[in-house]
Amino acid sequence: MNNKLFLHPLGRVCQLLLPLLLLTSLAFAQTAEVAPVMADDLRASGKIYVVVAVVAIIVAGLLAYLISLDRKVSRLEKEMKS
């Protein structure tokens, strides 16, 4: 059977990475019984809220940076058109 998908470079990459992906998913599925001790400790001491707040601040900062960058690029595109 002549399949042209695996002759394409992207097809070869998929052919190599798919078994690896399946093997890693099996490995993670087997270790699902282990409880996350660090998260339980942070929740018990009330520090999990600090972690969530820091992550939220970082995500908000990245979002604000991307929005400002988009505005600058849009302004430059308008200047180049005119």
From TrEMBL:
<keyword id="KW-1133">Transmembrane helix</keyword>
<keyword id="KW-0732">Signal</keyword>
<dbReference type="Pfam" id="PF20077">
    <property type="entry name" value="CcmD_alt"/>
</dbReference>
<dbReference type="InterPro" id="IPR030888">
    <property type="entry name" value="Put_ccm"/>
</dbReference>
<feature type="transmembrane region" description="Helical">
    <location>
        <begin position="48"/>
        <end position="68"/>
    </location>
</feature>
<protein>
    <submittedName>
        <fullName>CcmD family protein</fullName>
    </submittedName>
</protein>
<feature type="signal peptide">
    <location>
        <begin position="1"/>
        <end position="29"/>
    </location>
</feature>
<keyword id="KW-0472">Membrane</keyword>
<keyword id="KW-0812">Transmembrane</keyword>
